[in-house]
Each structure stands twice: as structure tokens, then as C-alpha cells.
Amino acid sequence: MSDALILEHRDYVSVLTFNNPPAHTWTPESLQLLQKIVAELNANSSNRALVLTGAGDKFFSAGADLQRFHHRDVAQATDFSTAFGAAFQVLSAYQGVSIAAINGYAMGGGLEVALACDVRIAEQHAQMALPECAVGLLPCGLGTQQLAWLVGEQWAKRMVLLGERLSAEQALTIGLVSEVVPSGEALQHCLKLVEPIQKQSPTAVDYCKELIMAARECSLSAGYALERQRFIELWQDDNQFEGVTAFLEKRPARWHAKTKG
């Protein structure tokens, strides 16, 4: 694993630490590596969750190094923007539960990677922004799309068009993060938060995440139909019968690993 992204496996959960000091900026290479890591986790039947955080206590990630954009090469810009979008799309579709432990500044692409996670927890000193317009750029890692969906159009416009930077408490107020914890505690809090995943059916969790994400794109009636379809498909998986049997027998379920790929 590259020094810029450090992956640690802890039983059913993996921890991915951004480690490109001083600000843990992204490069095309680290973005491609992120795609590879998520693909490998998807193929690992024992993996159920992924926690992302930054090394140290100042930065979660500051996005991209602006030195990488100080040129007029359209082809190079295309490659970089494609890498951003592709990596964060892959992360959004990760087949487990992803949590961003925002332990410092999350700026630009650093906030976008957090937006691609299922849950965001911020330490009290963290700050979040999408400041691209101030330097003649725009968020190209799904930021305009993810942010507007999560917090609404008005706050997305304040953050993107006006460059407004949010404190952790402001982010909590608008629903950008789900919780604020004391400084230095985000990672351990996220590891604790994800513990109940072991009690959940891997198949049901996978289907439910798909359904929740599908609500962004499909009509309500199409979502209803897909929900019913996935419910019936549970009967093709051993976990449906095991879950109900365990409940009736008053014992913990012994889940079968969902086939991944």
C-alpha cells in the first residue's frame, strides 16, 4: 500500500488513513489507489465497514495541491478531474458502510471524499469548505451533486458559490455531519459506531444501501418497485432464513458471508 494511503484491517472493519503531509492532498495516483482499495474491500467477504481519516490532528484532507493545476494543459486537467470523479463514485458505491472521521480541515476534494461516505463524524475543531471558485476552479469530485443532495440547494450554494467555510457545529446544524465529538476522538468513536454492523445481515445491508442511494436518481414509484423486488430476492440468500430463525430461537444470527465482487 502506498505511503499516501495507509490501510489497516481490524476484523470486520478497515481503516484508511490519508498520509500525504502536510495537508493529505490527493494526486491522480492516490485517487486510482483509492479505487483499487475499495474494489479489494468489496471482494473481501469478511469486510463490512470502512472508516476514513487523516493522519495527525490538523488535516482530514485539503483536497488537491493547487500546484497540480497551475498549467494550461486541458488533457492533464481532464485526467485529474476524471480520477477525482471516478474514485469518489467508486467510494459511494462501496458495498459496506463507510464513515468519514473528519479530524481536521476538510477542504475541496477533502470534503468531497467525506461526502462520498455514508456517515460523517466531525471533531469539534474541524472545518469544512468547497473553496474552488475562489481560485477559478469548481468541485469536480462530485461535490456540487453530493452536497446539494445532502444539505439542500441553499446551503450548497452558500458553500460553493460564496465559499462559506463551516465549523463542525455549523455542519451538524445543516446535516452535513451527523455528530460532533471532542478533538482526537473521531476515529475511536467511528469504530464504536460501526460495531452494530456485525448484527446486521450483510445481504440486507447491501440491498438497503442500494435502495437509499437509488432514491437520488429514480422516481418514487420506481423506488417502491425496486424495494419490493429486493425484498423478494432476499429469499434467494441464506441470510434471510438464518435471521428469522435466530430471532425465533432467541440467539445471535450466524450470518453467511455475502458473495461480493
Secondary structure tally, helices: 10
Number of domains: 2
3D shape: globular
Query: Can you identify the CATH class of the largest domain?
Result: Alpha Beta
For the largest beta sheet, what order do the strands appear in spatially?
Answer: 1-2-3-5-7-10
**Percent helix:** 40-55%
**CATH architecture assignment of the largest domain:** Alpha-Beta Complex
Q: Which structural category do the helix and sheet elements fall into?
A: alpha/beta
Low-confidence stretches: none
Order of helical and strand elements: EEHEEHEEHEEHHEHEHHHH
Which range does the strand content fall in?
Answer: 15-25%
How big is the Rg?
19 Å
Q: What's the end-to-end separation, in Å?
A: 21 Å
Mean pLDDT: 95
So, the CATH homologous superfamily of the largest domain? 2-enoyl-CoA Hydratase, Chain A, domain 1
Task: List the topology elements.
Elements (H helix, E strand, L loop, with lengths): L4 E6 L2 E6 L9 H15 L6 E6 L4 E3 L12 H19 L4 E6 L2 E3 L1 H7 L3 E5 L3 E3 L13 H9 L1 H8 L5 E2 H7 L4 E3 L4 H8 L8 H13 L5 H14 L4 H11 L13
Helix pairs in contact: 1-2, 2-3, 3-4, 4-5, 8-9
Q: Would you give an account of this structure?
A:
This protein is an alpha/beta fold and 261 residues long. It folds into two domains: 5-197, 2-enoyl-CoA Hydratase, Chain A, domain 1 (Alpha-Beta Complex); 200-248, Lyase 2-enoyl-coa Hydratase, Chain  A, domain 2 (Orthogonal Bundle), CATH 1.10.12. The protein has helices spanning 28-42, 74-92, 109-115, 143-151, 153-160, 168-174, 186-193, 202-214, 220-233, 238-248; strands at residues 5-10, 13-18, 49-54, 59-61, 97-102, 105-107, 119-123, 127-129, 166-167, 179-181. A six-stranded mixed beta sheet has the order 1-2-3-5-7-10, sandwiched between helices. Strands 4-6-8-9 form a four-stranded mixed beta sheet. Helix 1 packs parallel to helix 2 (74-92) and helix 4 (143-151) crosses helix 5 (153-160). The relative contact order is 0.12.
